[in-house]
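[Discussion] Sanity-checking designs against the backbone

I'm trying to build intuition for which residues belong where. Below is a structure token string of 204 positions. I'd appreciate it if someone posts a full sequence so I can compare it with mine line by line.
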């Protein structure tokens, strides 16, 4: 489901990149065997738009509970999550749903057949996404490797790939450390360095 990036430049060309805050989540059972969790995000900034053409679209029915979408809102669909089925709590393991659940404060919306939450935390994230051109939702383009928490001082903290084995994660963590083109910006935050890298990528 997730693609691989050679480096940060490659990821920027293939993805849209946004900063956003999660405001709602909705978990549901599909096909009788799979739990899907939808997250509604409020977009704070659109930093980059991909320059490579899209590959293919994924069919999905968006839960009506998350509609309509505001002008600066989007949905991200993730396989996995937690659901109560016939009184039994079923958890389909997913690093991203566990991450967002652990990192945000949530209030449950009463619903007998699904888990619907309004998220009241104030954390924001830098996210590499793969838009579906004719659909109002996006996919995480690189899975957990493409999600970074934005700290109060605008550092970019990897979500769950803290061992830096993924090229994209390693590239973000090392921003400003080795790149000659960024040497003049070493005193800036990681988020500012990333914006600079995006601008440089557009000119190449």
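Best answer:
Here's mine. Compare freely.
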């Amino acid at each position: 489901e997730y693609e691989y990036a050679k480096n940060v430049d490659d990821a920027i060309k293939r993805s849209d990149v946004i900063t956003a805050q999660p405001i709602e989540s909705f978990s549901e059972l599909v096909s009788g065997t799979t739990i899907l969790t939808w997250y509604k995000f409020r977009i704070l900034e659109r930093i980059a738009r991909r320059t490579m053409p899209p590959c293919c679209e994924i069919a999905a029915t968006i839960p009506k509970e998350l509609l309509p979408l505001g002008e600066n809102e989007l949905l991200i669909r993730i396989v996995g999550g937690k659901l109560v089925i016939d009184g039994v709590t079923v958890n389909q393991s997913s690093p991203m749903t566990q991450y967002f659940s652990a990192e945000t404060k949530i209030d449950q919306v009463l619903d007998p057949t699904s888990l619907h939450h309004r998220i009241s935390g104030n954390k924001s994230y830098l996210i590499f996404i793969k838009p579906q051109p004719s659909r109002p939702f996006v996919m995480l383009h690189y899975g957990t490797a493409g999600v970074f928490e934005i700290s109060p001082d605008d550092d970019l903290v990897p979500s769950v790939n803290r061992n830096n084995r993924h090229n994209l994660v390693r590239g973000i963590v090392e921003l400003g450390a080795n790149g000659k083109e960024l040497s003049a910006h070493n005193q800036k935050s990681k988020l500012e360095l990333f914006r600079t890298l995006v601008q440089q990528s557009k000119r190449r």
